[in-house]
Design a protein that fits this description.
alpha+beta; 60s Ribosomal Protein L30, Chain: A; 174 residues; four-stranded mixed beta sheet; 14% strand; 5 helices
Length: 174
C-alpha cells in the first residue's frame, strides 16, 4: 500500500513537470520616487493681507458672490441667459486659475421619485459642465455629481423653497 502511494505521488510529480509553462512576465523595475520635499511656509507678516488662497473654494465663493449657483425651472435642465452669465463668470475664474479643478453638483427639489430626481440632478450638472467646457474650460478639470433631492438648499415645502433647490452648484476641489 505504501509503495502504491509513492508511485502515485511520483506519477503526479512527473505529470506536472511535463506541463508546458510560459516564461514569467518580467516587469520593469519600480522607479524610486523622491519623497516630496516639505517647504516651510513663512509665517504671515503683519502687513500680509489675510484671505483665502486663490483657486480655493473660499476664494471662488467670495469671487463668485452667489454666481456659483444656477437655478432651473421645474423638470428642466436647460441653460437660460441668467445661467449663461453666471457660467461665463465661473469659466473666467477657472481660466484664470488653470490648476483649479471643480465639481458641478446637480440638485432637484423634493417632488418626484428618488431615481427621477437623481437623473434630473445629473442632467443639470452635465448641462452646466458642458457649458463651461464650451467656454474653454478643459473637460478634465470638471467632474459632476448628482445629489437629487438629498441636499436641499431650503428645507421648506413651498414653491419658493423648491425653486432654490432646483440648481447646479460649482464647487472647487482642493
Amino acid at each position: 500500500m505504501k509503495r502504491l502511494a509513492v508511485i502515485s505521488v511520483a506519477a503526479s510529480v512527473l505529470a506536472l513537470a511535463a506541463c508546458s509553462k510560459e516564461a514569467p512576465i518580467i516587469l520593469p523595475p519600480v522607479q524610486q520616487t523622491e519623497a516630496p520635499r516639505v517647504v516651510p511656509t513663512p509665517a504671515p507678516t503683519p502687513t500680509a493681507q489675510a484671505g483665502p488662497v486663490a483657486g480655493s473654494q473660499a476664494h471662488f465663493a467670495r469671487t463668485m458672490a452667489g454666481r456659483d449657483v444656477i437655478l432651473f425651472d421645474t423638470d428642466r435642465f436647460n441653460i437660460d441667459s441668467a445661467d449663461a452669465a453666471s457660467l461665463r463668470t465661473q469659466a473666467e475664474y477657472l481660466l484664470q486659475y488653470p490648476n483649479a479643478t471643480a465639481t458641478v453638483e446637480g440638485h432637484a427639489d423634493e417632488r418626484g421619485t428618488r431615481d427621477y430626481n437623481l437623473a434630473l440632478g445629473e442632467s443639470r450638472a452635465n448641462a452646466a459642465r458642458n457649458y463651461l467646457v464650451s467656454l474653454g474650460v478643459a473637460e478634465g478639470r470638471l467632474r459632476t455629481v448628482s445629489y437629487g433631492e438629498e441636499r436641499p438648499a431650503d428645507n421648506g415645502s413651498s414653491d419658493a423653497a423648491w425653486a432654490r433647490n432646483r440648481r447646479a452648484v460649482t464647487v472647487m476641489i482642493n
